[in-house]
């Protein structure tokens, strides 16, 4: 069974094969459940011309925002971009192409890509700029647009626990885009907090089966909070 061990011992090995102009699908929502070390490795590699598919582009100086500093991202496919001043600057300067996608549609694009479904119909975006130039049909009296699914050369995801075969679970709200992203990469790399022995994870609690995972690395996570809001003492009285 040793041949099924997918654990690698370096970030260089984890991201081996990533080249300029590839598409990377990244799990996470804001700064929650992001593969921090894998993103840092992409920055270290200085890979250019990337198309990155993710809910957002992190914040200035952290998460996917790191990749904007050396203009490594050519195109961003995302649903929310409001926390990153550098992102806004590059967009307005014409240095970054952005394809804004409704959040549920983006999640389904990843899920469909992982399931081998080339496209699907959704009512979201019909009659708006999102639907311009896209095929439309009417079902049961309602208009829908055709959205193409997404796959990537790499998918980078973050999990809580995994065995060495790649079966993994995500903790709480890290079950955001990670499960969908994990299925949609030609090479899926999993950054995980803890490796457990095979059999320790109950089959009923596994979120992503190991069949989708190609490489695993144990990471150390800062888990930065995007916005910390504390109630004042007066509000608690």
Automatic annotation (TrEMBL):
Q: Please provide, alphabetically and separated by semicolons, the GO molecular function terms listed in this UniProt record.
A: succinyl-CoA:3-oxo-acid CoA-transferase activity
Q: Which InterPro entries match?
A: 3-oxoacid_CoA-transf_A, CoA_trans_fam_I, CoA_transf_BS, NagB/RpiA_transferase-like
First-level EC class: transferase
Keywords noted in UniProt: Transferase
- What EC number(s) has UniProt assigned to this enzyme? 2.8.3.5
Pfam families noted in UniProt: CoA_trans
Q: Which SMART domains match?
A: CoA_trans
Task: Provide the family line.
Answer: Belongs to the 3-oxoacid CoA-transferase subunit A family.
**NCBIfam families per UniProt:** pcaI_scoA_fam (TIGR02429)
User: What is this protein identified as?
Assistant: 3-oxoacid CoA-transferase subunit A
UniProt lists the gene as scoA
């Amino acid at each position: 069974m040793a041949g099924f061990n997918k654990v690698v011992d370096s970030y260089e090995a984890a991201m081996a094969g990533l080249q300029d102009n590839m598409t990377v699908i990244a799990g996470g929502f804001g700064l929650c459940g992001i593969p921090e070390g894998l993103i840092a490795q992409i920055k270290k590699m200085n890979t250019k011309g990337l198309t990155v598919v993710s809910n957002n582009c992190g914040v200035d100086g952290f998460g996917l925002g790191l990749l904007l500093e050396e203009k490594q991202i050519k195109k961003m496919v995302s649903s929310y971009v409001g926390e990153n001043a550098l992102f806004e600057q590059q967009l307005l300067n014409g240095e970054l192409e952005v394809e804004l996608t409704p959040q549920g549609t983006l999640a389904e694009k990843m899920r469909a890509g992982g399931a081998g479904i080339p496209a699907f119909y959704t009512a979201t975006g019909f009659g708006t700029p999102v639907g311009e130039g896209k095929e439309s049909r009417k079902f049961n009296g309602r208009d829908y647009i055709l959205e193409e699914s997404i796959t990537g050369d790499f998918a980078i995801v973050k999990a809580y626990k995994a065995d060495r075969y790649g079966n993994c679970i995500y903790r709480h709200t890290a079950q955001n885009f990670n499960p969908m992203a994990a299925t949609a990469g030609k090479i899926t790399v999993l950054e995980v907090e803890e490796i457990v022995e095979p059999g320790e994870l109950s089959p009923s609690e596994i979120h992503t089966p190991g069949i989708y995972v190609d490489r695993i690395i144990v990471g150390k996570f800062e888990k930065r909070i995007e916005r910390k809001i504390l109630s004042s003492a007066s509000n608690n009285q």
